[in-house]
C-alpha cells in the first residue's frame, strides 16, 4: 500500500508485459510467423487498462497477484484480438495502432485474421490452464463470464451494433447500449473477474462492484470520444479524429465536448461513491477511476 | 444398439441440429443481424462429422446424450467459425459452402468476421455453461483441450501452415504435420471429449483412443483431398477442384489418387484394429470410420 499510484501502475504494467510474454507461444515455435505476429499484436505497448482493473479489483478481495496475472493476460488477449480484427480493411481499415503499423499492414490480412482468431483461443486456454481461484466451479463460472463479456451479447455484439450505426443518428440511450457492449463489457468483466480471484464477497457487494464496473466502462468510452475529438495522432498512438471521419456517433457528436466532460465527471463521482464503503481495499480502483478521467492518451 | 448405423447417424444429426438451434442466440435478440448471420453459418447444413464423432466417442464410456450434445455443439461452433473465416476474401475467397452462399457473400465481410469471432466465443461459453461430466476439474481440462485443439498449435496453426504452403513443394511428413493441425486436431478432440463425458478409462485406453482420433483425422483429410480432386461442385456443396486451382499441396498431388486410396485403406484398418479391444462399445466409432472412407460428399 505504500507505493504511489504511479509506482503501482508501472509495476502492474511491467508484470503484465512479462506475464503476457510467458503466456504466448514463443516466436521460435511452429507456426513461427503466426506466433511472431501474435506477439507483435500483444507485446510492447498498450496502456494495459484492463490488467490494471483486474489487479485493482483483486485488491478488494486480497487476491494473489499470480492469479490476477492469469486473468489479466486472458482479458488482454481478448482485447488485443478485437483490436487486430477491428483494424482490418473490412472493418475500420486502420494502419496505426499503439504507434506501430497494424498487424495486417506489418504482416498480411490473412495472418491478421488468424492472429485474432488464435489470440481469442489463447485467452480461453490461458484462463483454463491454471488456478485462478480456490473453487473449480467458480473458475468455470469465470470462463463463462469472460465468454459472455466478449461474445455476441458483449464486446462482439457491440462491434456489430457499431457497424450498423455508421451514418445513423443515435439517441443517447442507443449510444450507451452500444458502448455498454463494445468497450464496457470487457472493462466490467476485468473488475468482476479480478474480484473473484480472492475471498468471497456477499451478493450486495458483488452487485455494487458490478455497477462500478459498468460506470467505469462508460466513463472510459466518454473520455475516449473526447480524446478522439481533441488529441492528435502522435499523442494517441492511433489515428485521431477517425470517429468524425467515419461519421460515427460519439458522446461528443451527440452532446458536445462540454456536456461530455460534465457527464464524465458525474460518472467518476458515482463510481467513487460506490467504492467508498469498501475503504482501503478500494484504493487502487478509486485511483484508477480518477486516472481514467484525467488521461491524455 | 438396435438402430442401424444410418438410423443412428440421422438421429445424431437431427438432435445436433436441434441442440445447436437452442445453443445459439435467437435471431430476434439484439444484435439481430449478427445473430441471424451466426445461425445462417451454423444451422441447416453440414454432415455434422464432429458431432457424430463426439457421440461415437461417448458410446465408449456410456456418456449421457445431453452432455454429448453440449460438447458436440461447442465443437461444431468452432468448426463453423473456421469455415466462415476460411471462406473470406483474404483467405480462400470462396462463395459457396454447404450449397449456400458463404457468409461474407450473403451478408458482408465485416459481418462474416464478427460471426466467426462470436461463434468461437459462443463455443467456449456453451462448454462452460452446463455440466459435461461429473468432475468440474475435468470440465476445465476439457475446455483447455478444446482450446488447444483449435488454437495456434491446433486448427488455427494448421491454417497458418496451410497459408504458407501455397505454391510450395511439401514432403509427406510436412503435409501430415499441416493436416494433423488443420483438420486433425479438432476431429481428434471430438472423440477425446466425447469419451471424457462418461466413465473414466485408464491411461492406456485413453492413449489408444487418442491415437484412433489422430488416424481418423488424417483419414478424413486424405478422403477430402480425393473428393476435392474427383467430385463435382454440385455433389460437394462447395467449390470442387479448388486445391489444384489454388496450387495447394494435397495427398493426391503428392501421392496420386491410387496411392492416396491405399493410404486411406491402411489408416481405416489401423483405426479398426485399435478399436477392436473395446468390443461393442466401439461399434459406432468403427462404423463411422468405415463411413468416412466410403463417403461421397
From TrEMBL, chains A, B:
Its cofactor is Mg(2+). Keywords: Isoprene biosynthesis, Magnesium, Metal-binding, Transferase. PROSITE patterns: POLYPRENYL_SYNTHASE_1, POLYPRENYL_SYNTHASE_2. Pfam families: polyprenyl_synt. The keyword Cytoplasm does not apply. Gene3D superfamilies: Farnesyl Diphosphate Synthase (1.10.600.10). Belongs to the FPP/GGPP synthase family. PANTHER family: FARNESYL DIPHOSPHATE SYNTHASE (PTHR43281). This is (2E,6E)-farnesyl diphosphate synthase. It comes from Zoogloea oryzae.
